[in-house]
Amino acid sequence: MAIHKYDVVIVGAGGAGMRAALESGQRARTAVLTKLYPTRSHTGAAQGGMCAALANVEDDNWEWHTFDTIKGGDYLVDQDAAEVMCKEAIDAVLDLEKMGLPFNRTPQGRIDQRRFGGHTRNHGEAAVRRSCYAADRTGHMILQTLYQNCIKQGIEFYDEWYVLDVLLDEGRAVGVVAYELATGEIHTFHAKSIVFATGGFGKVFKTTSNAHTLTGDGMAIAYRAGLPLEDMEFYQFHPTGLAGLGVLLTEGARGEGGILRNAGGERFMERYAPTIKDLAPRDMVARAMVQEVREGRGAGPDKDYVYLDLTHLPAEQVESKLPDITEFSRTYLGVDPITELVPVFPTAHYAMGGVPTDVETRVLANNADVVPGLYAAGEVACVSVHGANRLGTNSLLDINVFGRRAGIAAAEYANEVDHAPLPESPEQRTRDMLENLLTGDGSEQVWQIRKEMQETMDMNAQVYRTETTLKQALTDVEQLKERFRNVSVQDKGSRYNTDLLETVELGFLLDLAEVLVVSALARKESRGGHAREDYQVRDDVNFMRHTMAFAETDADGRDFIRLDYKPVSVTRYEPMERKY
Amino acid sequence: MSATPDLAMPNTRPTPRRRQGVNFEKNSWIFMRASGLILVILVLGHLFIMNILDGGVQRINFAFVAGRWSSPFWQFWDLTMLWLAMLHGTNGLRVIIGDYAKSGKTRFWLRGILYTASAATILLGTLVIFTFDPNLS
Amino acid sequence: MATATATAIPEAAAPQSFDVTLRIRRFDPDDSDTHFWQEFTVSVYPTDRILDCLHKIKWEQDGTLTFRRSCGHGICGSDAMRINGKNRLACKTLVKDLKTKKAITVEPIKGLEVEKDLIVDMEPFMAAYRKIKPFLITDDIEPTRERVQTAEERAAFDDTTKCILCAACTTSCPVFWTDEQYFGPAAIVNAHRFIFDSRDSAAGQRLQILNQDEGAWRCRTTFNCTDACPRGIEVTTAIQQVKRAMMYGLEDAE
Amino acid sequence: MASTGTLYRGGVSMWSWVAHRITGVAVLFFLYVHVLDTALIRVSPDAYDTIIASYKTPLVNLMEVGLVGAVLFHALNGLRVMAVDFWERGPRLQKQMLWVIVGIWLLVMVPGTFYMMKHTIESLFGAA
Ligand SMILES: Cc1cc2nc3c(=O)[nH]c(=O)nc-3n(C[C@H](O)[C@H](O)[C@H](O)COP(=O)(O)OP(=O)(O)OC[C@H]3O[C@@H](n4cnc5c(N)ncnc54)[C@H](O)[C@@H]3O)c2cc1C
Ligand code: HEM
Ligand code: SF4
Ligand code: F3S
Ligand code: FES
């Protein structure tokens, strides 16, 4: 058994993890554990931009940004957190620029900004240019820039190490257990503080913009350790995924002037959001698209998608500001956006929910207590700055602002305390789990279970939901969990056993799918990304509160999910109806 | 795992925009191009005269060469060509040996043979051009 | 504004699935110390990617087949491999763009040690990257706002910022195969990204590093790297600009 | 079933480099021989004339053509490489330049071969 001792251990090397590492590395002995090479994290897929009220191209201020974030999140946003994020946004962007990020520039040589969905001037008057961007590879540039600065600082990385468990001792986090992909060895990391930055779990759905590796490990690990998951029913579907594939076309395409059209060529968003039309928040646009298809105005042989129209934009603008998505469309659909309409349909994109934290990124054990030594930032966490629906560009912002805060907080805590003792045989749980999977000779196959889970989630828990569909999803997921006990891993080796890890990841996904569905069933209202056809209006009296889901075992030893609720923090903005 | 990269802390001293410095690999790179350029004229000219202009190799014999090397112009031409081509070719082969000879030892020996052969050939050629006696019989 | 209509898209008939055979070069040092070829047949659609084929094989036929992948759409750089003899990303190579009469060959990228099946040891590649100081180094007084950079100044290195460190270029380079000390095109591309960044002040240091024996001078302009780059970076052009910067200094290099 | 990997399917530019290498080495080796045989001129005119006479045989004549072809390709491609190195638009036009030099090579080599082989052809088949 190998034990590694550090002050701070960061799990995940996406934007949030590396931003944290840059802070923590300066203050305390830090290790970053990541299941992917850092530059392969999915932050690199982010395209459109990162919002901050720099006011480089037009009048803007962080309070408007805060308002947009809260309204965009359908008032489920914790307003104190949103204020922190939007205020610190400006420095977050400037910091990245100073670290070397090559933002696009204005004619004056300043950071250029463009429009993005839901971002408005003066509380909803008109779309504002707030998103700072580097062509349509902003996330790529953020990820590269952060990694480059980690190299500059000599941050210690453990690449291709999978964290599979978090060690808690009397409620305090004391370490993690990790699996080294190259050798199959299990290691314990003993730390004073731990930051989770493991990203999202888009792979519970079939059609998704997320990477194959976004399997919600961090959330599931915390959840299995008895910690709650917040607002898991709020999952964002991005309007413009390449139809049938889910590969994302940034909202920046509409920011640059792209238009959504139905089979009849109609600009249908004019009917749904008369003021800002195609730049309405994602949940509204996604619902409008599904509505169009349901009402028979979809395009294509099966009338199951709509079009993104960029043909009226100058070719140079499309090629220079949106080069990557132009190429995706050409490569994967054989459609040239400069002359043709691109088939698009909503794709599972972003988890608003996750591991609950306060604005200092400390993980909450319940509505009142934090877990000492445990921090979370990025998509894995729920601060909650995104509420019921995240605005485009606010996630790259989130990972930078709260990633930074997590790095500082974790290091400062580590510098105040001593290592707490590790629990006895810290690796036992992990060893047992892996041993079970490796020696099991069941007949169930991983891919089959995963496929069925993704299909039922796409069918029953997607853009629109009802009691019936959600119950169906729940039954399916529970059966799949049962079948998962009989799963077999073919690769019994110890070297690069990705077969084994895909199985572990599927286990995580099944847990999260269940939590998502259970939380969604209980929320009998429609709000943001959670649209219940049987409860079509927002119900602020009963549901203006966060869902907290706990894994518990009843007296008979049966596992169940206990739901609790946490109040929303409201500072300045009273809930209003959301109109654009 | 990737170990901590061993990097000296970045040097933030102002750096000269234009830096000089002797560098063998760079100089050899430049030499290959410069010599190549001159060789185009020398070698192609040589081949053209020898092989294509009236009758080609068929007319070459002692007398022909004797006639040519009595002029300092052709002496100079052939000498330059000899030196440049040998140096250019030797340097080229040096790089090639570096590419394919894996072990340091093979590399050393192959290069040793190459340099010896080239040096000998250059010397011999130079000697012939300078000490050539057209009246030899 | 153009009145776009749905007719711009030709309504293709639903594509038919068909069988393709993949011939995969396999290796597991725990089993045996030799590589071997293995063939798998899968049923695919023309628009499927090679990554989909590999997934199908791994999931439905042989769970021990091992390869890296993450994003699935060509932006993370995990799945560079040699497909029908050329370096490409499996997730960006569509079956319909390959000849499928004969088996499609899939091999690990060349010049880095194979760890298992299609997985190679990336460490030498990353080490070369780290050596060229791939980070902004400045010597001016930090401004309170952003550093000013004109759109033209930014354009000088735009192309090389696209690199996803997939290693397709470096492992397609004949010089790299034979000389593992050679920095390789990817490292030079990333050096270029900073050398030509108007905000950076350490171009001299990087040029000095690349001026060494196994640096940029080793490039023989074979253009395999440019052909292989899945991001469409003009790799050789970047290398040549770096060489010129080493000869003439920075101003005249572009 | 041990195996080696397949040959890398590089583009024409890779093969032009391979050809450049091979022709360069071939020419160097020829040069060693050529200097040696020319050195015979120092020994005696007869020795020289004998060796040159052997160059006048059809087989060696054919090799002679090969040599010229090799040098010409190497020289032309060398110029192309320099254009790629020093001319800003070189890398983008490298393929076109390759076709141009191949064209020039053919243009020179087809009649050139005829001239160089004229005597051989005449002596083999009789003059026209
Ligand atoms: C296609 C796409 C486009 C987007 N565009 C935008 C945009 O324009 N603007 C915007 O604001 N947001 C955008 N987003 C959202 C945003 O990019 C993500 O939410 C954000 O990047 C998440 O960052 P992260 O650091 O939390 O996680 P990630 O970048 O996903 O990183 C997760 C890290 O955790 C590691 N990890 C995971 N599990 C484990 C484990 N078990 N052990 C060890 N390590 C582990 C991984 O290796 C990885 O390094 C987009 C998202 C997608 C998918
Ligand atoms: C006739 C005009 C010639 C020109 C324009 C020329 C040009 C060049 C150039 C530019 C290179 C460098 C290639 C690179 O770096 O990629 C080179 C390499 C080389 N040349 Fe020449 N050359 C000429 C004649 C010769 C001759 C006469 C010889 C033989 C003696 C020769 C042998 C070589 C060799 C062996 C190499 C190394 C090839 C390699 O590294 O791949 N060249 N030549
Ligand atoms: S330059 Fe291109 S091929 Fe090379 S590592 Fe970067 S993205 Fe990959
Ligand atoms: S393949 Fe290699 S030789 Fe140069 S042009 Fe590319 S680095
Ligand atoms: S899987 Fe990310 S590049 Fe192919």
Q: How do the helices and strands line up, and which of them pair or pack?
A:
The complex is a heterotetramer of chains A (580), B (137), C (254) and D (128).
Chain A: E1 2-11, H1 15-27, E2 30-34, E3 50-51, H2 62-72, H3 79-99, E4 113-121, E5 126-132, H4 138-153, E6 156-159, E7 161-169, E8 172-180, E9 185-196, H5 217-224, E10 229-230, E11 235-242, H6 252-255, E12 259-261, H7 269-272, H8 282-294, E13 306-309, H9 315-321, H10 323-333, E14 342-351, E15 355-356, E16 362-364, E17 370-376, E18 381-382, H11 394-416, H12 428-439, H13 446-460, E19 464-465, H14 467-484, H15 498-522, E20 531-532, H16 540-543, E21 545-553, E22 559-567
Parallel strand pairs in A: 1-2, 1-9, 2-6, 9-17, 15-18, 19-20
Antiparallel strand pairs in A: 3-5, 4-5, 7-8, 8-9, 10-21, 11-14, 12-13, 13-14, 16-17, 21-22
Chain C: E1 18-26, E2 36-44, H1 50-61, E3 80-83, E4 86-89, E5 104-107, E6 114-116, E7 119-120, H2 123-131, H3 151-158, H4 174-178, H5 185-195, H6 203-210, H7 224-228, H8 235-248
Parallel strand pairs in C: 1-5
Antiparallel strand pairs in C: 1-2, 3-4, 3-5, 6-7
Chain D: H1 12-43, H2 45-55, H3 58-86, H4 90-125
Helix pairs in contact in D: 1-2, 1-3, 3-4
The structure holds flavin-adenine dinucleotide, protoporphyrin IX containing FE (HEM), iron/sulfur cluster, FE3-S4 cluster and FE2/S2 (inorganic) cluster (FES).
FE3-S4 cluster is lined by residues 172-173, 175, 185, 219-225, 235-236, 239 of chain C.
What does this structure look like?
The complex is a heterotetramer of chains A (580), B (137), C (254) and D (128). Chain A is α/β, with parallel strands linked by helices and 580 residues long. Chain A has helices spanning 15-27, 62-72, 79-99, 138-153, 217-224, 252-255, 269-272, 282-294, 315-321, 323-333, 394-416, 428-439, 446-460, 467-484, 498-522, 540-543, and strands at residues 2-11, 30-34, 50-51, 113-121, 126-132, 156-159, 161-169, 172-180, 185-196, 229-230, 235-242, 259-261, 306-309, 342-351, 355-356, 362-364, 370-376, 381-382, 464-465, 531-532, 545-553, 559-567. In chain A, strands 1, 2, 6, 7, 8, 9, 16 and 17 form an eight-stranded mixed sheet that branches. Chain A has a four-stranded antiparallel sheet with strand order 11-14-13-12. The termini of chain A are far apart. Chain B has one domain (26-131): Fumarate reductase/succinate dehydrogenase, transmembrane subunit (3 helical TM bundles of succinate and fumarate reductases). Chain B contains four helices and no strands. Chain B has helices at 24-52, 62-69, 72-100, 104-131. Chain B starts with 23 loop residues before the first helix and ends in a 6-residue tail after the last helix. Chain C has helices at 50-61, 123-131, 151-158, 174-178, 185-195, 203-210, 224-228, 235-248; strands spanning 18-26, 36-44, 80-83, 86-89, 104-107, 114-116, 119-120. A five-stranded mixed sheet of chain C has the order 2-1-5-3-4, with helices on one face. A two-stranded antiparallel sheet of chain C has the order 6-7. In chain C, a hairpin with a 2-residue loop joins strand 3 and strand 4. Chains A and C meet through helix 3, helix 4 and helix 10 of A and helix 1 and helix 3 of C. The structure holds flavin-adenine dinucleotide, protoporphyrin IX containing FE (HEM), iron/sulfur cluster (SF4), FE3-S4 cluster (F3S) and FE2/S2 (inorganic) cluster. Protoporphyrin IX containing FE sits between chains D (20-21, 24-25, 27-28, 31, 71, 74-75, 78-79, 81-82) and B (32-33, 36, 39-40, 43, 85, 88-89, 92-93, 95-96).
